[in-house]
Each structure stands twice: as C-alpha cells, then as structure tokens.
Design brief:
The chain has five helices and no strands. With 156 residues, it is mainly alpha-helical. The chain has a domain of 102 residues. The longest helix has 28 residues. 24% of the residues are buried.
Length: 156
C-alpha cells in the first residue's frame, strides 16, 4: 500500500511570503536614521543592491513559468539546475539577501542589519520547507542538493 504524498500547508507557505514582504518593506522604507548608527558603506552598499537586483532578474528569467513566490513547486514547473542554480540552490533568496545587505550597508542603520539577519533566518526556514516539496516532485533534487550549497556559492 503506497501512501499519498504530503500536501503542502498553504497557510504556512503564505506566512513565509507575508513575513518576507514585511521585512523587505521595512528594509526599503524604514528611515536610515532610526536606531543606532554604524559606519555607512555607501559605494559597497550600492554595489550589493545592484548585484542583488541583477541576480533577481536573472533568476526570474531562468525560472520563467516555474517562478512562484510561494515555497511550493508549481505543478507544471521544471527543476532548474543551470545558470545561477548551478552555484546555489536558492539564488533568488541569495540575490534578495545581497540586495538587503546592500541597503543595510548603504544606510548604516543597525536596525536594518537586524532585519537582514531576520531575512536570512526566514529564508533558511522557507528553503527547508520548500525543499521538502522539491524532493517529492523531483527525485533528482536529492543528488543536486548534496552537491550544491543552499545560499553561498563555493561553500562546499
């Protein structure tokens, strides 16, 4: 007797999306002078912001119809292992983190650094949740995930 595959918890999936949106809104729109200030790294911050934006656009183009904000693979989706996906399993999250870190570096706001750390923790939890369903949908994902790091290239 075979058991039915686990159904994704839609509430949990959308909760990740909601918290992610909230953290990003705070990062972008919170005044840089709120909270304690750390040294600003303006040029490095802008560079990270732009690299993050480029990474987001490259990932979106690579995923095409498989792109979804919810951490559940689309029924008609395909596993992407080329482009940025040959370096990290979640380059979209890596790119958003790079963009967010750029905002924090540019602003010098300690609060924004805390938001970046919170976003990293959220993306870790979200990716663990997402990978459960990627493994169910794509049998080759197990081998792929054993070879390729989660967020940071060349860390294996």
């Amino acid at each position: 007797m075979t058991s039915k595959p686990e159904s994704p918890n839609q509430l949990q999936a959308w909760s990740y999306v909601f918290v992610q949106a909230l953290l990003l809104i705070l990062l972008v729109f919170l005044d840089r002078n709120v909270g304690p200030q750390i040294h600003r790294f303006v040029i490095l911050g802008w560079s990270f912001e732009w690299l993050g934006i480029v990474g987001i656009l490259v990932c979106a183009a690579s995923l095409r119809r498989s792109l979804t904000v919810v951490p559940i693979p689309k029924e008609e989706g395909k596993l992407s292992t080329t482009g940025l996906y040959r370096y990290v399993r979640h380059p979209m999250y890596s790119s958003v983190l790079l963009f967010a870190l750029g905002i924090a570096l540019h602003s010098g706001s300690a609060i924004k650094y805390i938001l970046v750390i919170s976003l990293y923790v959220l993306f870790h939890l979200k990716s663990v949740y997402e990978e459960r369903y990627l493994r169910l949908k794509y049998p080759e994902y197990e081998q792929y995930s054993a070879r390729i790091p989660r967020f940071i290239p060349f860390t294996r």
